[in-house]
Amino acid sequence: SAIYVARILGPENFGKWGVLRSTVSMFSILLGFGIGVASTKYLAEYKDSNKKLAGRILSVSIIFSFFFGLISSLILILSSKWLASVFNDTSLLSLFQLSSVFFFVNSIYGVLIGSLSGLNCFKQIALSSFFSSIMGFFLIIYFTKSQGVSGVIIGYSLYYLIANLLLVYYLLKETKKMQIYFNFTDLKNTSIKFLNLSFPAFISGSIGGPTIWLLYAIVANMPNGIIYIGIFNAAKIAQNSIVQLGTQLNAPLITMMANDKSNLIDRMNFVVPWILITLFAMPLIIMPEFFTYFLRESDYDIIKLNTLVSITSFTAYIMLFKQGFGRKIITNEKMWWGVIENIMWGLALLLIITPFINQYSEFGLAYAFALVYFLDLLIIFPIYLKNNFFPQELVSFNMFLSWIIIILCLSFNLFQFSIFFRLIVFIFSILVQFILIYNIIVKNHTNENSNI
Known about the structure:
Layout: H1 2-25, H2 28-46, H3 51-78, H4 80-86, H5 92-118, H6 122-147, H7 149-178, H8 187-220, H9 225-247, H10 250-259, H11 263-286, H12 289-292, H13 302-331, H14 335-360, H15 364-386, H16 397-414, H17 419-451
Helix pairs in contact: 1-5, 1-6, 1-8, 1-9, 2-3, 2-5, 2-8, 2-10, 3-5, 3-8, 4-5, 5-7, 6-7, 8-9, 8-14, 9-11, 9-13, 10-13, 11-13, 11-17, 13-15, 13-16, 14-15, 16-17
């Protein structure tokens, strides 16, 4: 649906949609993440051992998400005039006001997903996602064609509303089956316990949202800035899809890690996403034509878009690799580590964005994000390794070689090697990647049996 929206709107209007979505993300997704993560972790721990506490945690998560979502929606409506002035575009005023609905249903969505994940109801999540996505696809395309940017907001709001209704149905059905009931007693102590994890998760997430929003505000006020945002967001459709695939692993892996501290689960936390990003990110890094084919005969410069998709897919590779660290700090209740890391990431991104846009124009956003994510990984990796947040047995020549291959694949695209050459390299590289992953898995399995 995002590809169709990008084709229909074109770079400028798709840039406006990117601005609106970044504003909504500044609170709603991050709010849902903070509360949703805490709900997932605590419901996974207590759903069997302490059903009364699980019921209170579920009650607190729903109350918090509804209350903060409603207050934040009202703030968005009241500040819409100021927000439009920040982006120097009065046409955004009514769009920001309309986005408050999208904002609210999106924030509720994250908490419902987190709660069902904590209850191990992944089949129910899959069913609700399947049916709401099919209906949402047609709604988003229909309203975008008929009403432009306003239609995108309406379409996505209806999609999340349908998804929320299905999730609520499954949540009520499964909690009744598990004999976990909403419980509003002792909310004070439950809220304190809940906030110990959700507050730093919210703070950590709320750094990224405002950073990207402020970055878009800076770029939008530059010549052709809104068009640059539109082109960048068109390239990011592929990145978002890859990251979303990895994000689907968050809830089940967090649930498993909360209940099982074994080395096997610890390795799965990193190896399973590694296989996933090799399957989905690597092809787009070296062969972005797989994606840009769907945007041919549109208002986008396909040659430039190929380069941008390659860079943003490389960034997705790093992001998915880093998600393993995120799950570790959640299950070990070290969320303040994520806060510090995100502050460093946000400051670095804001410092370099202006010179990067001035130097590289539409490529500036993609280069800046890729560089900051890569440097961030280089800095945090030895710290997390030292504190046993990354399995030391996975650190090997095979892992090092795997990263070298990915960087080479990116280089072949940036230096515009022929598509035939890149196709040969792609086939060879993906085979080598899976051999390396296989060697790492077999080596660790052999070592574990030897230790036993």
